[in-house]
Design brief:
Blueprint (H helix, E strand, L loop, with lengths): L13 H18 L17 E4 L2 E3 L2 E8 L4 E4 L4 H4 L6 E3 L5 E4 L6 E8 L2 E2 L15 E11 L2 E11 L2
Parallel strand pairs: 5-10
Antiparallel strand pairs: 1-2, 1-6, 3-4, 3-10, 7-8, 7-9, 9-10
Length: 160
């Protein structure tokens, strides 16, 4: 070892040079990590405009996973029946047609109906109609896009 040199210290640049390098790496990694506020509501899944029997029905966002070019977010919500417990139902006639309009339609979609938390049997997923039996019915519509998937819930009261 040369005179004035300490053990464990690098010859070229010494320990200070390396400590500055690792400090710069740490700062760069910290600054490029998740930045709060990057994801805004305009980047959330599209909500459909829902009409049943010609009446507009309010929908509530349910669970979703969505990504954009710079971020992604997932949210798990309560079951659709629980989400709609306090929502007022739109009164519709039995067999009424359910229409969904999206600004950006999903590649595929699926509809489910529930009465008192029990799923209703549906013969055909393309038959988007209200059941014939009277009572409160909750619907969950799930759509799949290249950006992710999203579900919405809505409720109707089938007239007698």
């Amino acid at each position: 070892m040369a005179k004035g040199e300490r053990a464990g210290v690098y010859r070229r640049g010494g320990w200070r040079r390396w400590s500055r390098f690792w400090l710069a790496v740490w700062v760069a990694m910290t600054l490029t990590a998740c930045v709060p506020g990057e994801f805004d509501e305009s980047q959330l899944p599209p909500l459909p405009r829902i009409t049943v029997d010609g009446k507009e029905v309010k929908s509530v966002q349910s669970s979703y996973c969505w990504k954009t070019w710079n971020s992604s977010v997932c949210a798990d919500m309560a079951h659709s029946v629980d989400l709609m417990k306090k929502e007022s139902a739109v009164s519709v006639r039995p067999g009424a047609l359910i229409e969904l309009e999206y600004e950006d339609p999903p590649d595929t979609r699926h509809i489910e109906a529930f009465r008192e938390s029990e799923p209703l049997e549906r013969e055909d997923d393309e038959a988007w109609t209200v059941p014939a039996e009277p009572g409160r019915v909750v619907f969950r519509v799930t759509g799949w896009w290249k950006e992710g998937d999203s579900s919405v819930a809505f409720v109707v009261e089938v007239e007698r």
